[in-house]
Amino acid sequence: MTHILNFVDAINRGVANVLRWFVVAMVLVQFAIVIGRYVFGVNSIWVQESVLYLHAGLFMLAAGYTLLIDKHVRVDIFYAKVQPEIRRRIDIFGHLFLLFPSMLALLWWSWPSVRNSWKILEGPMSVGGIEAVFLLKSLIPAFCSLLLLQSFASLLRLFTHKDEA
């Protein structure tokens, strides 16, 4: 069981290691856009959309890693002030009744759009843009899958390591 949990963690850590370079690329491309536009008077919709693609990839694909390192958004009304066992129960509830259903619903409702986008190899959002909206839409099931995998691993840890909560 530990091997499976470590494997899921390794997937999200590996994805995060790749995504770190998305941040660097975003900054460099955005800098180039500003210099190109204001210094040289040159503009490219394709280059502008590349920042959008990098940004979407970064935030959609890093969600599993964010959950892994426990830096996700938490509505902390009383969570920090309660005992570890109650925190553990809140986490279990969150995984089972909030995260799992929402990710499964998102997968279910977005899949036809993603599938159709791949069928027609959906083109750019704007004239002159990146001809790969199908890749952008593919981030939705990837986001759901990475987050569900990490949630499953976290949930298993919550059930097997009760004393470490």
Structural overview:
- The longest helix has 37 residues, at 2-38.
- The model has no long low-confidence stretch (mean pLDDT 94).
- The chain is elongated.
- By secondary structure, the chain is mostly helical.
- The protein has one domain (2-164).
- It contains 5 helices and no strands.
What's a quick, concise take on this entry?
InterPro entries: DctQ (IPR055348), TRAP_DctQ (IPR007387). It is built from 5 helices and no strands.
Task: Summarize the SSE layout with pairings.
Blueprint: H1 2-38, H2 45-61, H3 63-68, H4 84-119, H5 133-160
Helix pairs in contact: 1-2, 1-5, 2-5, 4-5
* Net shape: elongated
What is the count of structural domains?
Answer: 1
What number is the mean pLDDT? 94
Distance between the termini: 18 Å
Report the biggest beta sheet as strand number plus sense, adding barrel if it closes. none
Q: How many extended strands?
A: 0
Q: What structural class should be given to the helix and strand makeup?
A: mainly alpha
Order of helices and strands: HHHHH
Main location: membrane
Subcellular location: Cell inner membrane
Subunit structure: The complex comprises the extracytoplasmic solute receptor protein and the two transmembrane proteins.
Keywords: Cell inner membrane, Cell membrane, Membrane, Transmembrane, Transmembrane helix, Transport
